[in-house]
Amino acid sequence: MDEVRSITQIPGIRAGHATNAGAGTGCTVIVCPAGATGAVDVRGGAPATRETDLLRPEETVQVLHAVVLSGGSAFGLAAASGAADELERRGVGLDVMVAKVPIVSSACVFDLACGEASVRPDASYGVRAVRAALDAVDAPLERGNVGVGTGCTVGKVAGPARAMKAGLGEGIRQVGKMVCGAVAAVNAVGNVVDPVTGAPIAGVLSADGSQVVSVEAGATMPLRTNTTVSCVVTNARLSKAQATKVAQMSADAYAHVIRPTHTTNDGDCIFVMATGAIEAEVDMVGMLATAALEDAIVDAVRTAQGVYGLKAARDLG
Questions:
Q1: Strand locations in 21-144, DSSP E?
Q2: Do the beta carbons of residue 84 and residue 127 sit within 8 Å?
Q3: Is 276 among the domain residues?
């Protein structure tokens, strides 16, 4: 297999965005029309999710058609309904004899404080994102201030005046024909750091706005306004139980790169979609997925652009 640079180059996987830059919100859809093996790991204390119980290994549905990552807090779950409607119109779904039911899981970030709080992704956003995903031809996934990343911020421990802009990032790791890709929308309360050196990349700004400082410099913990949501995509052949283990292993990426993470006021979660094209050892998949997710989280803050009065990592020189 040639070198893969975006999850949209993994056979059977498509992805697209619906973005409202003016209101500071949007959604991102990852679609596998033929159906993938799905799983999820939820570790945050305040998640806004849809169809996560169905992904547990003991449940009988064995297929996942799409993951919707959305802004809008719990209101943004409406985008998943629109995505399901559009997939049904296109004949994508689980055949239950009388209809095809698209299996769509979703998770949302709290971005209501970043733009217009009264504007949230609704069903129309899900429709637009699915159309962008399925109608695009070999287009790499756009990153930064797009889709679910439009209103993402980090470093909110010390209050909004010292927060920074984040966004949506992507990471790819590949060994031979086996590929793991990750998409992450980073809306963390604290800092994003380099996973190797531990050096801060984005997060709590110093009082003069010139550098990122330790999260311990903050004095407050904003309530339930912080979440990092991700989707790992792989061409590995996994059972639901194995995909769940990959999701659990991938959660280490959050701990390696985000400080703090999995707090009581986060809604952190990680979805997995496995297309089943390549035989692979589950621990190797988990290791590659973790590395890809680390890359995606860092990419989310490096590709973000300063807006809404917030600086981004690229603005710090």
A1: 25-42, 49-50, 64-70, 94-95, 100-101, 104-108
A2: no
A3: yes
Q: How confident is the model at residue 87 (pLDDT cuts 50, 70, 90)?
A: very high
In a domain, 53, yes or no: yes
In this prediction, residue 78 carries a pLDDT of 98
* Residues ≥6 apart with Cβ < 8 Å to 37: 62, 63, 64, 238, 239, 240, 243, 272, 273, 274, 276
d(CA 29, CA 7): 12
Which amino acid appears at position 160 of this protein?
Answer: P
pLDDT score for 4:
87
Is residue 123 situated within a structural domain?
A: yes
Residues 76 and 84 sit within 8 Å (Cβ to Cβ): no
Both tokens assigned to 173: 């790791």
Domain membership of residue 251 (yes or no) is yes
* Contact (CB, 8 A) for 265 and 189: yes
Answer yes or no: are the C-beta atoms of 156 and 225 closer than 8 Å. yes
Residue 200 preceded by cis peptide, ω within 30: no
Provide the residue type at 303 as one letter.
T
Distances (CA, A) of 244 to 88, 135, 234, 241, 271: 26, 30, 13, 5, 9
Of the candidates 58, 72, 144, the one whose C-alpha atom is nearest the C-alpha of residue 115 is 72
Select the more confidently predicted residue: 242 or 209: 242
Q: What percentage of the chain reaches a pLDDT higher than 70?
A: 97
Burial group, residue 176, by CB count within 10 angstroms (0-12, 13-18, 19+):
exposed
The CATH number assigned to the domain holding 169 equals 3.60.70.12
Share the mean pLDDT of the chain: 93
pLDDT at residue 271, as a whole number: 98
Q: Give the structural domain span for 88.
A: 7-316
Domain count for the chain = 1
